[in-house]
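Summary for the steering committee. The consortium agreed at its last meeting that each partner would contribute one worked example illustrating the joint modelling workflow. Our contribution is presented below. We chose a case with several input lines so that the handling of multiple components could be demonstrated. No manual editing was applied between input and output; the record is shown as generated.
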Amino acid sequence: MSFLEYAPAPESRAILNLRDRYGLFIDGEFVDGRGTPFQTISPATEERIAEIANANEADVADAVAAARRAYDRTWSRMSGRDRGKYLFRIARLVQERARELAVAESLDNGKPIKESRDVDVPLVAAWFFYYAGWADKLDHAGLGANPRSLGVAAQVIPWNFPLLMLAWKIAPALAAGNTVVLKPAETTPLTALIFAEILQQADLPPGVVNIITGAGDTGAALVSAEGVDKVAFTGSTAVGRAIAKEIAGTDKKATLELGGKAANIVFDDAPIDQAIEGIVNGIFFNQGHVCCAGSRLLVQENIHDEVVERLKLRLSTLRLGDPLDKNTDIGAINSKEQLERIRELSDIGVAEGADRWSAPCVIPENGFWYAPTIFTNVQTSSRIAREEIFGPVLSVLTFRTPAEAIAKANNTPYGLSAGIWTDKGSRILAVADQLRAGVIWANTFNRFDPSSPFGGYKESGYGREGGRHGLAAYLSPAPIGQSALSRPASRAAVESADAAAAPKSRRAVRSSTRTAKTATKGSKR
Amino acid sequence: MSRLAVPKTYKLYINGAFPRSESGRTYEIMRADGGFLANVAKASRKDARDAIVAARGAVGGWGGATAYNRGQVLYRIAELLEGRRAQFVAEIEEAEGVSRAVASAQVDESIDRWVWYAGWADKFAQVAGNANPVAGPYFNISVPEPTGVVAIVAPQDSSLLGFVSAVAPALVAGNSVVVVASERYPLSAISLAEVLATSDVPKGVVNVLTGSTAEIAPWLASHSDVNALDLVGAGDLDWLSLEVAAADTLKRVLRPESGPDAAAPALGRISAFTETKTVWHTKSLR
Amino acid sequence: MATAFPSGRSSLEIKLADTAEAVAAGADEIDMVIDRGAFLAGRYGEVFDQIAAVKEACRRPDGTAASLKVILETGELVTYDNVRRASWLSILAGGDFIKTSTGKVQPAATLPVTLLMLEVVRDWHLLTGQRIGVKPAGGIRASKDAIRYLVTVAETVGEEWLVPHLFRFGASSLLNDVLLQRQKMTTGHYSGPDYVTID
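What follows is the complete predicted structure of the assembly.
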């Protein structure tokens, strides 16, 4: 099939109003970092975008202290109604500046403007909208009446959906009454920093959200910082493991959203053209930089050849190029490091005996690019069938019976997501029952919604983001005997009430409960 | 020289437009101090009938919109109300004869209560619905759906807060509404209708009638194309006969409430206007 | 136009007579509307036979044949499965071109329906090597919409289809919009309906 020439259709960068240097956003203001600043670049052209501050341990401590002050003095005393109003403001501001954020995201991350404009940024606004409404309804979150916020949340997010991952972290944390220190990924800090400007426009009380840029050591310092009550991390399983070990035995609660090697299962009765679209979306959306990507195609053996043929035809129509061009389907790989990892694993696939086919894309001279690639003749024991590549590389395997498909799909330490393609409803539901995965898409893929819980089984992490379930990560049930009381004025007051409740005699316990009651009388709900 | 005011005309709000009553009737609203404030349309049974037709026509679109969309639309109404805060405060001061502080408190609470309800749109299904663990190879889920057209007799003692407290919960679930405003204090309801007309709420989703509640309520209660009847403000009427009339078509009925906590915000006010649908689907690997 | 346009409900004899007359008078193309009543009632064999018979009537004494365009009236078929089935049926029965609509029924052409028809044409080509034409008709008013259709054609069946004997628009007001766009490209400012003729 030959290819039509499309005229360039670039989204204008004129909408951006970038600074040359960005500081750390602590206590409502941008301040210099004490670490060595670094540059953020466009992965499509390798051009420099801006200088980014680097938070060292002292900066991390400052940010955590600011979050603590804001929690004690302001945010934990504020009514849910008012917290909700701030979140609604943020949602509206994101909508107003949606185009600007989308352009910045595509520039800094490398993903096509089609995706950042139509998927990422709308979901960001929707996430804040959804959780804004929960702020004054926490009694219905499923943890009983009067659940408590946890305190200060340390949040570390990845580079694949920078602003969306920020929204997934900040929105529920704030709705539940926590304050936040968030560290964006090293290669994608830009939209987080513009978001900080949005927080200033929203007049969010200083210190409620703090955004500190830096690299891996900033993240490590943040997670282990004293004064952090909650850790939320999205990223690789390797780092997730390290975090779990680091905080073991401490009072820090954690939720982890890690890697995946999802099976996309196509049965022989699946509507074939729709299944092809689903396979393509599953692994090539966002250049495959998706934890829940359908990176293993499990196709029923009797349709294998037809599916692979049609896949190759379809991949030949994908356009790889300038992320800011509205016609682009496949954008840039986020960094040189990631490109090398993809290449390495891809070459291992060839060495292991699989057959590699890549779409015939014209690769630009500058920037980091990898053409959509399919491996057939893959063994279940191949590294490319086991390890997360995190790039536009699909491994194709086959099965004969539903039971075999399920067994192969589950045969992995990961368990984040899965796809099922068939025309038979009863099969969808029975297969879904048996798949050990936290998110299952049937006859669709990569669908996200703030009301829909997302998270993994096994080594894909624990905890859920989105939906009513997503609130549980940032709340704890009211202590026994206190669920009937109105919300405590501050964590400090609660702690002193709890400490006062410690004494041994019953009378002492009763009187201290009365103390807690009077301490909380008059506080808003 | 003080400026001559341009007084406002208060008409009905039906199907997104502001018609006078087809009967041509009006009645006087007086200021608290006895002076003339405005003429307000006195709705007839035909106006009520037209409003119900409009509401039925709108229920498919509003109920079929995503919950997220409804939440957004409702939140935007709160934004518009906030922008018009001064107007609403002044109107209440004049109509109810209360101080600015009291009027402001009522308007503020009305806006905040509207926001509370808007925030339920995309989440109350998660609290009111669920999967059911039936004993067999079936997928089974229960979801709340809008009941359809809800007729409401709004609280009579309040210009705005009572009205908002009765209307907002019915809208959240995707119902369309025909509401009879407070007979004594109808002006805020019509001003709110102006806000609705300039918002993204589709026409026919909210219809506001002003006039004699005793005259109109029986027509709403007995109309076969009304699914639910909220008599929250019908305490001074012969509401028993209204409930009997509603029983003819098995409408879901909410009884009158009185006092300052009438129509207080509650999840129950949303679920009262929903139907629970339970769907089964077989599960099989063969 | 032949064969009981636009409803497709008349006896087969009349349709065939219509067709033969038109061909004899020199027609290069015959448009027929499928009998949607028979199709929706599941009488697929009947629909097939009708199309095949009309195709037969398109043959000329010298061995050539007029090109047969089969109108599916997709707005009445409603579901995508029906559109796909009707497309296959029409091609199997000998149609040279499949067309979405007469333009008398809403909705007329839509992108999803056209994509479906293109997929059938693509699959037919993969199976047999034969190229069938596609014509979306009705509802395409803006140049921008037209470009979307052209892209869909190119990315589904390939650029080879972007020729009049394989792809055409059934659109009356589209031409004026194209002219308006060209005026803007030439002058640099937006044009208006007074600057194109209605005929």
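The CA atoms of residues 144 and 276 of chain B lie 4 Å apart. The mean pLDDT of chain B is 96.
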